Amino acid sequence: MTTDRFFTRADGHYHFARWGRPIVPIVFGVDDATLGVVKGAIEAVVALAGHKMAETDPEQGANLFVFFFRDWDELLAVPDLDRLVGGLAPALDRLKAQQANQYRAFRFDADGSIRAAFVFVRMDEAMRAMPATDLALLQAVQVIVLWGDAAFRDTPPLAMANGVAVLRPEVAALIRAAYDPVMPAVARDASHALRLAARM
């Protein structure tokens, strides 16, 4: 299996990063029932990776921020969000022009590992049509590592099995390999992809 495409940026450069600290999620814009679904999906993907979750991040409180909303402009009213996510205003203009329904932004520790992530999901018709469990799993998968721009352009990370959305076996294997303790938390050389493939 060719794995380098999963972590290749639009400019052709290879860039892999995984979380370097336990994940502490906080979810906005959902009811209590859906909150449990979202956090459950995150817990499942973190467990698959062999990574850890925690009750709090000592520096930030939370470090995985998940927002569900109806319109991109709603984000402009969230206090200090523009400070947490650099370049938010121009990004929103671009997302509105593209009629995008999701966006992810990452922040990194000094060693290049993921320090924090921000997940924005605009609940348009397509997103509302998805079962909450499927939507939550999709978002959890897409934030567990720093995927390349075209990682899932041709094949989505989820597949249907007996009417239930599940993570594709090759993607699950890739996530497990990415969090193998002997593998680096950050890589910018495509030879890293060969090492991943050997562990899948």
Question: Would you give an account of this structure?
Answer:
There is one protein chain. The chain is 34% helix and 19% strand. With 200 residues, the chain is an alpha/beta fold. It has a single domain (4-198), classed as Collagenase (Catalytic Domain). The protein is globular and about 45 Å long. The model has no long low-confidence stretch (mean pLDDT 94).
Number of domains: 1
Q: What is the level 1 CATH name?
A: Alpha Beta
* Helicity range: 25-40%
CATH architecture: 3-Layer(aba) Sandwich
Short structural description:
The chain has 7 helices and 8 strands. It is of the alpha/beta class.
How are the SSEs ordered, and which strands pair?
Blueprint lengths: L15 E2 L7 E4 L3 H18 L14 E6 L11 H4 L3 H11 L3 E7 L5 E9 L2 H5 L2 H12 L14 E4 L2 E4 L1 H10 L7 E2 L3 H8 L2
Parallel strand pairs: 2-3, 3-5
Antiparallel strand pairs: 1-8, 4-5, 6-7
Keywords:
Collagenase (Catalytic Domain), about 200 residues, 4-stranded mixed sheet, alpha/beta, globular, two-stranded antiparallel ribbon
